[in-house]
């Protein structure tokens, strides 16, 4: 019950920050998340609802990064561990209760017509272009779903993830092992 109240409070704060950004002219462009060792930026137009960690029901004979399916607010969603998919290295799920409390499932926007949610280790808030000091386009060998690579004032590098392009990648759609 406390987790549900905390999630509602977080979503309320996020909604009020989005509304404040619209009225003050500051454009929040991305939802910043951390997954494994990576820092990622999801375009707000591609990201959907954010859910607390819900253990998915495993599906046999699937890729290690596909954790299974979960019932999220009455809808059946495939759950992908972002860190494992992005690196190709199967990652361990959060072992401690504190780590699990910070984990979130970020659903794709329903307009993308993919019932999928990405498991991230931590939400890092909203970011706009003003939060970064440099950016570089994806390299020639980068996956098609990679956007620009941004650097913030602290020197941290954030990879933009085009969720629409990701949702159309054959590797992402082929969950069978």
Automatic annotation (TrEMBL):
Q: Which lineage do the record's taxonomy fields give for this organism?
A: Bacteria, Pseudomonadati, Pseudomonadota, Betaproteobacteria, Burkholderiales
GO biological process terms, semicolon-separated:
chemotaxis; signal transduction
Q: What is this protein called?
A: Chemotaxis protein CheW
On the tree of life, the source organism's domain of life is Bacteria
Pfam families named in the record: CheW (PF01584)
Q: Where is the CheW-like domain?
A: 27-172
Which Gene3D superfamilies does its entry note?
CheA-289, Domain 4 (2.40.50.180)
